[in-house]
Amino acid sequence: MTKFDEILVKKHLKRTKARIMILKVLEKSLPLTAGEVFEAVRGKDTRLSLSTVYRNCEALAEKGLLIRSSMLSDGLSRYEYAHGNMIHHAICLSCKRIFPVDVELESEYKDKMDEDYGFEAVEPRVEIYGFCKECRANGKAEEYKDHNDEE
Amino acid sequence: MTKFDEILVKKHLKRTKARIMILKVLEKSLPLTAGEVFEAVRGKDTRLSLSTVYRNCEALAEKGLLIRSSMLSDGLSRYEYAHGNMIHHAICLSCKRIFPVDVELESEYKDKMDEDYGFEAVEPRVEIYGFCKECRANGKAEEYKDHNDEE
DNA sequence: TTAGATGCAAATGTTTTGCAGGGCT
DNA sequence: AGCCCTGCAAAACATTTGCATCTAA
Q1: Are B136 and A120 an interchain contact pair (Cβ–Cβ within 8 Å)?
Q2: Residue B3 CB contacts under 8 Å (≥ 6 apart), including other chains
Q3: Residues of B in contact with A107 (CB under 8 A)
């Protein structure tokens, strides 16, 4: 009975091979699309149908075990493992890669949200667009800027 | 020659009725999907095909006049008017409405990103999930929590 | 005049669903 | 046993593209 079995039981979800594989793959991975999860699992040995991947990712997200999001401005939904603390991401405008980063909102943002808008902040999500180390080093970042700054 | 005509000229884009209508609609609106823009424009008098909306939103986004984003975990791409300063959003987990809010990242985040990851931060994007004033008042927020916290 | 825009319809690609059979609890 | 899960194929959407026809510059 692995860690994942326990988690599934706690959330009143059946312990199936599909769910355990999906959690295992996403636990130590950046956010993946359903298709990418499908590929990753296939590589293991188990084979799941794509629709099973979709259904389970959605079910796990509803229980808060995964977080569904879209970033990168590519219109694809991705699922990421919900580690206790929210992990934010930096996205390179040039190479489109995603990096987990550790940044925070201003410290009093929760109070501010409540006072200013009557909004109860539960979970903030930050995406920082910019240029990664590599693209800055190999000139891709400048290339991108030149291409897009025709003011 | 309206404000939008000037903007389009500056960006080397032809001044077409489609583009001006799209900018006009999005300028004073929350982020909308292509389909929603299509509906909003149809309501006016002008008629645009959906593919024209898609093509133009994408073209305007490439020039930095609109920002394409996905939030709400519904997997749909939305376009929002790029006012000079980035506008962040709060999203109600219960009623799914989106509210523009004014919050900031920790003040030194750009330096931190550079030092810690060699990443050049250009534009941060913040989404705060939680519960809006109304849903807190009418009990929908509690309802949501009870429904989803079967730990 | 001419490159770029538009509408329509068809093509893609992603995500969701229906149904029959199989697997947890 | 009973209900939930899976696979497969079809359906439903969202988004993109090809092409012939207009239009802004």
Answers
A1: yes
A2: none
A3: 106
Beta carbons of A66 and A79 less than 8 angstroms apart:
yes
User: How many Cβ contacts (< 8 angstroms) between chains A and B?
Assistant: 159
**Domain residue limits, chain A:** 1-84, 86-151
Chain B positions in Cβ-Cβ contact with residue A120 (cut-off 8 Å): 130-131, 136, 141
Strand D neighbors by CB, 7 A: A 13-14, 16-19, 47-49, 51-52, 55-56, 59, 75; B 8-9, 14-17, 33-35, 50-51, 54-55, 58, 76-77
Q: At what angle do helices A3-10 and A17-27 cross, to 10 degrees?
A: 110
Express the helix, strand and coil content of chain B in percent, nearest 5 each: 45, 20, 35
Residue B128 near chain A (CB below 8 Å): yes
CATH of domain B86-151: 3.30.1490.190
Q: What is the CATH number of domain B1-84?
A: 1.10.10.10
pTM of the model: 0.85
Each residue's pLDDT, cut to its tens digit, for chain B (151 residues) gives 689 999 999 999 999 999 999 999 999 998 999 999 999 998 886 789 999 999 999 999 989 899 888 776 788 999 999 988 888 999 888 888 889 999 999 999 999 999 999 999 998 989 898 999 999 999 888 887 776 665 4
